[in-house]
Amino acid sequence: MSENKPASGCPMHATAPAGDAEWHGAQMDFSNKMSYGDYLGLEKILHAQHPLSPNHNEMLFIVQHQTSELWMKLMLHEMRAVRIHLRAGDLPPAFKMLARVARIMDQLVHAWDVLATMTPPEYTAIRPYLGASSGFQSYQYREIEFILGNKNAALLNVHAGTPEFPLLEESLNTPSLYAEAIHLLARHGLPISAERLNADPALPTVADASVQQAWLQVYGDTTRYWALYELAEKLVDMETAFRFWRFRHVTTVERIIGFKTGTGGTAGVSYLRKMLDVVLFPELFALRTEL
Ligand code: HEM
User: Fold this and answer.
1) Cβ 129 under 6 angstroms from ligand 1
2) Given CB 3.0 to 4.6 Å as the disulfide criterion, which of 18, 20, 218, 254 pairs with 225?
């Protein structure tokens, strides 16, 4: 049983009745120790939900977005490290992290099932309280897109003047994770065009014939290029999971708001459908027709 020492002479700390505070040897007194909530900062996280409407369902809307942002935070942590490992040619840790990123994305894909329990009238009741706020302004999502190579300088404008702007701008100007993979192909002696190797990192990935040929060589001689082959398949896993996320987003949005415009100002579903056409690693998908 833990002692109930008055921490500061305050009688409130000494009031737990002795004898009732025992449970399988578990620690009960955290007046002088770090607790679970302290370590995780739960004081902040669990008090960061502030519904603006009187509607019961707004809590779901908030928690769904906040948990997605937390998973995105972990994804970015892993992806930035993957990029560093690829640059160093250190593939085993990169593979481990890429596998984790794909699983996080799977989790985010399944998370849409929870949001899909929100009906159109439930959303309509909270929409006026959302103002112009929209996931479109998620700077973490934008950084994920930039790291994957879907660069778009115009989208930085949304974040002008915010504390996140410098980080996002740096991400726009840093070679994507996929660009690092292409440089790795070149370092393995596979011929990559100078145009692709020297491409402006702030521009979106453009399919390149030499890159497709290089990946074809990798897929054609897996014994020789096993590590690059594994990298290619991990990238395909990641893009596939990302496509599923986009698809579940647009179908859930259509189910909830139909064809109304988005709070962020776009046409809504038709905008999100266009985003489904974005291909992050074009050569890795194009080559499949030739295999
Ligand atoms: C009822 C729930 C939701 C609705 C109705 C909805 C609707 C929309 C719409 C219409 C857009 C296009 C931009 C705009 O005009 O607003 C958008 C973008 C976006 N939403 Fe959602 N969304 C919902 C939930 C979520 C959730 C839970 C997330 C998770 C973080 C999310 C993340 C995003 C992101 C990242 C974008 C930008 C996509 C891009 O630019 O490609 N949304 N959303």
Assistant:
1) no
2) 218
Q: Which residue positions in the chain have pLDDT lower than 50?
A: 1-9, 11
- Phi-psi category of residue 180: left, alpha or beta, with phi > 0 → left and psi -120 to 50 → alpha: alpha
Q: Is the whole-model pTM more than 0.85?
A: yes
The size of the chain, in residues, is 291
21-55 per-position pLDDT tens digit: 689 999 999 999 999 999 999 999 999 999 999 99
Which residue has a Cα nearest atom 21 of ligand 1? 135
Q: Could you give the domains of the chain?
A: 58-258+266-290 (1.20.58.480)
pLDDT score of 3: 41
Nearest to 154 by CA among 175, 136, 140: 136
Among protein residues, the one with the nearest Cα to ligand 1's atom 38 is 136
What pLDDT was estimated at residue 6? Answer: 44
- With a 6 Å cutoff on the Cβ, whether 144 touches ligand 1 is no
Indicate whether residue 285 lines ligand 1 (CB < 6 A): no
Q: Tokens 């990559």 map to which residue?
A: 192
Residue type, 229: Y
- What are phi and psi for residue 52, nearest 5 degrees? -100, -20
Q: Rounded distance, CA 225 to CA 213, Å?
A: 14
CB 217 within 8 A of CB 190: yes
